[in-house]
Design a protein that fits this description.
Blueprint (H helix, E strand, L loop, with lengths): L17 H17 L1 E4 L5 H17 L2 E7 L20 E9 L7 H7 L1 H11 L5 E2 L7 E6 L5 E4 L6 E7 L7 E4 L10 H8 L7 E3 L6 E4 L5 E4 L8 E6 L1 E2 L8 H8 L4
Antiparallel strand pairs: 1-10, 2-3, 3-5, 4-13, 5-12, 6-11, 7-10, 7-12, 8-9, 8-11
Length: 262
């Protein structure tokens, strides 16, 4: 794995060492302050090139074009809101997605399954252990965003999201977010509406470089990826881990996200 991950700068395989403990502490501090941490240059440049080569053909020729209109909640109705409430404004998300069974021979899938990587994430998140999904469609995905494609405003269902940016576009594809826009106790509908209207002074924009590992807590932080313009496309890998073994999506979720089932 040393040929894939920059273990000199990011010693995730040596968590018991002083360097490893300092890395975990730094990532935890970033999570507390910003709701995310970023490790720039996590993937080595040669590894990025090889992984992009691995995924380019399936993305171009055998991907599922996931396009849907949705509101920020990904729900048709929200308790406490009339169906025509302005905060339920719909917009479009579009990307092309491939699943783990389409790149399982790539080092990218080896990284997803690598125990030291999961142990590092678990240590940062304060979890006893994290498990890969028992689901070769949902466990690891690669998504591309081409001309006018975007991931629109939403909240995540999971506690945290793990992504690796493989290719950055020249124009667009920026990560925008408004931290702690709501809480488990307060949906803050007025604040959500201000965000959708472009009036949220707390919204931030982040532009990442290829090879960056980003771990983001998005359950109560609204976020989106702005539309991409021109080439190159934005290509990103998304890894999913859980505290319980054996997790998998339902057939309905498989069809909705990937256009096929297991």
């Amino acid at each position: 794995m040393k040929d894939i991950v920059n273990l000199e700068d990011w010693p995730i395989d040596r968590l018991e060492s002083a360097e490893g403990q300092a890395l975990v502490a730094r990532c935890q501090a970033d999570l507390a302050a910003d709701g995310m941490f970023n490790l720039a240059g996590f993937l080595r440049p040669d590894a990025i090139s090889g992984i992009v080569a691995d995924v380019t053909d399936p993305l171009e020729n055998d991907s599922f074009r996931h396009a849907r209109k949705h509101n920020i909640y990904f729900k048709k109705t929200v308790e406490g809101l009339p169906p025509d409430h302005a905060v339920l404004l719909e917009f479009e998300t579009s990307n092309n997605t491939i699943c783990a069974d389409q790149f399982e021979e790539s080092p990218l899938f080896d990284l997803y399954m690598w125990e030291p990587f999961r142990a590092f994430l678990a240590a940062v998140m304060g979890k006893e252990r994290l498990y890969p999904m028992n689901d070769m469609l949902a466990c690891a995905n690669v998504m591309s965003y081409g001309e006018k494609q975007a991931l629109n405003w939403h909240f995540d269902r999971s506690e945290f999201t793990t992504t690796l940016l493989l290719q950055a576009p020249d124009i667009g594809g920026d990560f925008q977010y408004s931290r702690n826009l709501r809480s488990d106790e307060d949906p803050n509908f007025p604040g959500v509406l201000r965000l959708l209207l472009g009036e949220d002074d707390n919204m931030r924009t982040l532009k990442l470089a290829a090879g960056t590992l980003n771990v983001f807590m998005g359950k109560n932080t609204a976020h989106r990826v702005t539309p991409v313009s021109g080439n190159p496309k934005r290509i990103i890998a998304v890894f999913s881990y859980f505290e319980e073994p054996g997790r998998r999506f339902s057939d309905e979720e498989h069809l909705g996200f990937y256009g096929r089932t297991l």
